[in-house]
């Protein structure tokens, strides 16, 4: 994220002053999806887990007020860190893949001698269709292959976290 200078400046600007130029229904739907994926609804259940695991003397208003204060801090901090991490990931992918064709991404992979890019990205002018696999390969093309492995372990951690949170 920090190696691509214009991404973090534009991201900070977008957080401070949200804007959408030439917005149509598709772009607004995409923006709503991005906001939803950043907040990660399964983490909203985090607050119930925090409240359930603490012993609070409910007969005293002071104890309830103090517990609510610490629950607010703990859940806000967890959601903020989650938001920042997801924001960084989405900013890198948006910078590299938004309105790019398969040929653009393929040429980038070929320039870096990536063995997986040619098998995944066609040599055509269709807009690149991103999924978990192509996102990882693109990350390997853009930076280095160990980033794709890191992304896979990050996905695994996200899946485990959401499963444990949802099943709790």
Automatic annotation (TrEMBL):
Entry superkingdom: Eukaryota
**Entry annotated with the keyword Magnesium:** no
The record's GO molecular-function terms, alphabetically, read: cadmium ion transmembrane transporter activity; iron ion transmembrane transporter activity; manganese ion transmembrane transporter activity
List the GO terms this entry assigns under cellular component, sorted alphabetically: endosome membrane; plasma membrane
Membrane-crossing segments per the record: 28-46, 67-94, 136-155
Pfam families in UniProt? Nramp
Give the UniProt subcellular location, in the record's own words: Membrane
The membrane topology term of the UniProt record is: Multi-pass membrane protein
Swiss-Prot/TrEMBL keywords: Membrane, Transmembrane, Transmembrane helix, Transport
Predominant subcellular localization, coarse grouping: membrane
Q: Which InterPro entries match?
A: NRAMP_fam (IPR001046)
- PANTHER family, alphabetized: NATURAL RESISTANCE-ASSOCIATED MACROPHAGE PROTEIN 2, SOLUTE CARRIER PROTEIN FAMILY 11 MEMBER
**Record family assignment:** Belongs to the NRAMP family.
Q: What is this protein called?
A: Protein malvolio-like protein isoform x8
């Amino acid at each position: 994220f920090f190696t691509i200078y214009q991404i973090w400046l534009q991201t900070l600007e977008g957080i401070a002053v949200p804007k959408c130029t030439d917005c149509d229904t598709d772009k607004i739907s995409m923006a709503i999806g991005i906001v939803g994926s950043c907040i990660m609804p399964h983490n909203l259940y985090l607050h119930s887990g925090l409240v359930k695991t603490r012993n609070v003397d409910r007969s005293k208003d002071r104890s309830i007020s103090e517990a609510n204060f610490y629950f607010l801090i703990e859940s806000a901090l967890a959601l903020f860190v989650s938001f920042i991490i997801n924001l960084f990931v989405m900013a890198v992918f948006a910078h590299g893949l938004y309105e790019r064709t398969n040929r653009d991404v393929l040429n980038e992979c070929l320039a870096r001698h990536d063995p997986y890019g040619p098998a995944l990205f066609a040599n055509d002018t269709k807009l690149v269709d991103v999924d978990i696999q192509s996102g990882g390969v693109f990350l390997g093309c853009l930076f280095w292959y160990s980033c794709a492995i890191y992304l896979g372990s990050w996905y695994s951690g996200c899946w485990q976290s959401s499963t444990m949170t949802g099943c709790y």
